[in-house]
From TrEMBL:
GO MF, any single term: translation elongation factor activity
Name of protein: Elongation factor P
Domain Elongation factor P C-terminal: 130-185
Organism, as annotated: Rufibacter immobilis
GO biological process: peptide biosynthetic process
Ranges in a coiled coil: none
Statement: the UniProt record of this protein carries the keyword Cytoplasm: yes
Length: 187
């Protein structure tokens, strides 16, 4: 058990029968009335983010989760196969547990979240930025940079990302995995 004073980003709690990750929190002490804590909670299974307010001092049940480094090996009919980098055991995850599959290439390192008591995998997370090579994009038109225009580009994993007009084919770019957006060109 924990109270609202123990809240921190990344804390996993049991709330409404599901496991939720605290992504943001803010303690509020208004001039009138009791203190409370505003939170943004992310459902581990569905990825849905909700806002919730807890009264200060309320007890919540925490869930013990562990983050373990894995490497993506391949995809087959059963799902996505990962290898544990510590003991080399393989784990197969269902497509629903891998929300960013179209940004993942073979050999990519990911972090898999495990429920510590039951040893069940909950979700997989990519690093914040991944480097991908553009396999196809239309050529940019010279002088068409007056506006903050963008064009679609297909990367090596098959995903389509919006990139600035000056980015060409066969260039390496960094992609933000949280928002599926272009971050910068890799030199």
């Amino acid at each position: 058990m924990a109270t609202t004073a123990d809240f921190r980003n990344g804390l996993c709690i049991e709330f409404n029968g599901d496991l939720w990750l605290i992504t943001e929190f803010q303690h509020v002490k208004p001039g009138k009335g009791p203190a409370f804590v505003r939170t943004k909670l992310k459902n581990i299974k569905t990825g849905k983010v909700v806002d919730n307010t807890f009264t200060a001092g309320v007890k919540v049940t925490t869930a013990r989760v562990e983050q373990r480094p894995h490497q993506f090996i391949f995809k087959d009919d059963y799902g996505y196969n990962f290898m544990d980098l510590n003991n080399f055991e393989q784990v197969t995850l269902n497509e629903k547990l891998v929300p960013f599959a179209d940004l993942m290439k073979e050999g990519q390192e990911v972090t898999i979240l495990f429920h510590a008591e039951t040893e069940t995998p909950l979700t997989a997370e990519l690093p914040t930025y991944v480097e991908l090579t553009i396999t196809y994009t239309e050529p940019g038109i010279k002088g068409d940079t007056a506006t903050n225009a963008s064009k679609p580009a297909t990367v090596e994993t098959g995903a389509t990302i919006s990139v600035p007009l000056f980015i060409g084919q066969d260039e390496k770019i960094k992609v933000d995995t949280r928002t599926y957006t272009y971050a910068e060109r890799v030199k």
